[in-house]
């Protein structure tokens, strides 16, 4: 253990006879290294969080291993048609003009009525989008030609033609009805849809990714494509809404043959492309704050999280037992060492200063979770009821003795701990917190309050003045608070302030399109997430998400069964990855666009049981999930189309790749934790749901994953519920509490760790949610309803002008107006005396 200016090795070097031996420096280092290695259950994960994985990985996840034979089928259909056109030449040998002419020929062939011919042409186009891999020697060449061909296909208008074919396939009632009647659905039922969605995904993902050697026309094409996807050009709605419709149709069991993995991947990448990723979101947030004249952000959250270091996980039960036994042996040894030192037999000075304990606990980043839940006397003096620091009886407690510093050659640089110069996050204070602090102070010292006045400090003592000054220095006004305040003003003064100018951003157009069926979209996504979660048990009424991975003929050998098992697990992991990233993007972009758009999506998620669903997801061996090897490298695209396929064996399937973690699974876990944070932040009733569902032990197990970003969001979730978990939980989890202090942002007057003033109304769930719902409905009514000013519109009381208004009638009314008069006017008795009666 180390502080800023001293190193303290553990003194535990006694032989069997009780004689003290002075250790050599190398032995001390070896013992320390062995102890630190044994305390780590998992290695540090070199994981860099981002919008997506590498382009190669994202392209390979589009295809299931069961689809592997279709690569050759695409090539054969292309070469069959291309041979008659190019006469012995290869695609990569053609000039750009010749390539454009051939693509135009394929585009014309897409419009034929014969379904089989259309499918062959679509497969030829897919082969072009896949990079004409039969003419390439390396994976780099495949990606190069894929990029070249995709920009060519987009320039020739292929995407619009594919969209029309996709709409036809979605509305194909014959295919839907036959799929509903089938007892078992396989790859063959979704062939056309899979080919179309694969081409569209390759186009969206490839055009979305920017590279240094992009041509100017490609950069312009990217912006045009982005605007087209975001704007309501496709049947009056953004392209993402068509995909959302496919999701809801699949989950309602009306189209069980839809290839859901491909739909979700395309939907996620479309949202990512049109709305922007996390770094673009941060830039948009900075610009938005500038427009609202708010002070700049105190730090870049993305950079801060990337610079964080992971902490060691909590010890397991077996480790705790072993550590307690070692402590008992070590305690006797250290007492003997202390007695020997007092007798003058020790090289150490007789008067030994104690290392101050709180500095060790606060800054020991090497192992802040070590011995969590254990009564570790050496590291947790805070756990005692007295809580007194200072001199301790050396025979009752373990003594940490300061030795003379060892010589420099014996101190390896790897063992030094870099202590933080400061906290990673700047503290924040809300306006509401300052008001609450002043209200409490005025009640205490003056006896009355001044409402929301945060400027008047008359009658308050000097320390309160200093406190308010400090609070105001760290005051943070969020964009959401400004939007809520503006919305209240617009609700109170609709005529004075007039109509709000709403900018037609991509997020605004998407929200406007999603609003009528928002709850259906959210429920459908959560149903799919539940079906794909590894903790879900198969039920007869659950959704079958394996329609686009199961082959027509089930495996008959053990090797085929193993391959299909890996494929199914991989398939589920990719679905979880796509849904978690999609939901997080929607929440973050809607929150930036308007807080009430974020709140309505959040409330739909909460009412659809998203919180217990995510907790159920984490209620598993999370280390096994993150280190799962559900991939077969030799079958991944583009490796499988460039290299010769080796013979697959059971050993090669079990081996998987050599990485220590699965990128997509760790990415999914972090996304789900971030979603849970978004849903519960500043929501007392939802925080109580975390407590009721006993999330603390589930979340604490997730700390075993040594990845800084994941640990940060777990600690945030533990922080907001700490005050409700009881004093005993806090006492036995002091290392977790220390980690929260180190890694999570501080709110200066937040008593999260003490629970002195527990929010009253712990079960006032309905009132809080209903008040929020009312605010959301008022916002939607004011901003999106057509007759939103109907109550304030002037009424025309003149009979002549009312009767003189021209009313547009349908064309067929002229032919049937006599029947209408007879039915609606003459045959209806009119009781004129009813007008004279009081209602």
TrEMBL record:
InterPro entries from the UniProt entry: Far11/STRP, Far11/STRP_C, Far11/STRP_N
GO biological process, one term: cytoskeleton organization
Pfam families (alphabetical): DUF3402, N1221
Biased composition (Pro residues): 402-412
All copies of domain Far11/STRP C-terminal, residue ranges: 461-817
Biased composition, class Low complexity, residue ranges: 313-327
A GO cellular component annotation in the UniProt record: cytosol
Residue ranges with Basic and acidic residues bias: 17-37, 363-373
Superkingdom, taxonomy of origin: Eukaryota
Acidic residues biased stretches: 374-393
Protein name: Striatin interacting protein 2
Species assigned in the record: Astatotilapia calliptera
Higher taxonomy: Eukaryota, Metazoa, Chordata, Craniata, Vertebrata
Originating gene: STRIP2
